[in-house]
Here is the input.
Amino acid sequence: MSTDRVVLAYSGGLDTSVAIGWLADQTGAEIVAVALDLGQGGEDMEVVRERALACGAVESIVIDGKDEFAEEYCLPAVQANALYMDRYPLVSALSRPLIVKHLVKAAKEHGANVVSHGCTGKGNDQVRFEVGIGALAADLRVIAPVRDYAWTREKAIVYAEEHSLPIDVTKKSPYSIDQNVWGRAVETGFLEDIWNGPIEDLYSYTDDPATPREADEIVIGFDKGVPVSIDGKPVSVLEAIQQLNVRAGAQGIGRLDMVEDRLVGIKSREVYEAPGAIALITAHMELENVTVERDLARFKRSVDQRWGELAYDGLWFSPLKRSLDAFIAEAQEHVTGEVRMTLHGGKATVTGRRSDKSLYDFNLATYDEGDVFDQSLAKGFVELWGLPSKIAAKRDQASGS
Here is the structure.
């Protein structure tokens, strides 16, 4: 097999560093490494860029994608109240289509006809990468060394040592970790026994929620579903996530320990921490409760669930996802106002909400003086509302069923 150039999704770790030379050997191609800064922290991205060159890449590209990720991927997830299996805020799933977008762009710019990634054959990410690449550039081929050529960590270590690659092959975390500004995902190691409880050393974005501390009160402002202020001070979407990661994280908010349904058909134990994501989604859901009409809100809940499933399943660029995006965007028209929350003990608790677009009418809701709700209308409404059930019940009684 021979090709001119291969674009590699590069993380800076052992597997993708080794993949540079290995892919060059196997394909006879030049390797272009592409890394994205999505707010994951850790190593300086310039160090990552230089490492790819030292490992043999002809080009090493580092893209600052933090704002793009926040505004075009995390924000839609907030507006869709996206929680896979009603819990997981799509920490890894949201980043993959953005990475795919830049891999495809790099392939076009550098004349590559192959894209490579480091995903395994039993995870969700292989699907997210390859389905996304197929949707954006069907002519590109994909090589997944770990999956397609049974590439193991042991083989990677031997290769790195034999070729004197500038990477530490002795550091071995017992966990597989993926993180970005939206959150952090931890799996494998002792977590694969689902009876084992997570230990405090697993966590990086959150403090122990059981530690005694003062509560933190926060007010998040939204404009048409977009977070625009915290405690009255303007913020970008990225700044909102970052500030909430700090403040909600300090209160232990956003820790999840769950067995989830992977796309490939197996169940997997995952530990997540996503303080900013959980706080933002909690606030946004409450503001929708105040500003979105009842039937629209009911229908949107089913749309939100399907949107989260599509994002999780790697169908970010699908026609259905685009159509649901349009519906959700329309539903945000009146989601403007402020939500007050108390952050404490691992929970973000809503304690107040206000909006110029509110559908809550005090004079209709109150039971005290000033009540304008005409209760005399309720008797006929109740009779008509229950009439179909009443007629059906009479029929069933008559037939003895």
In short: Residues 373-399 form one domain.
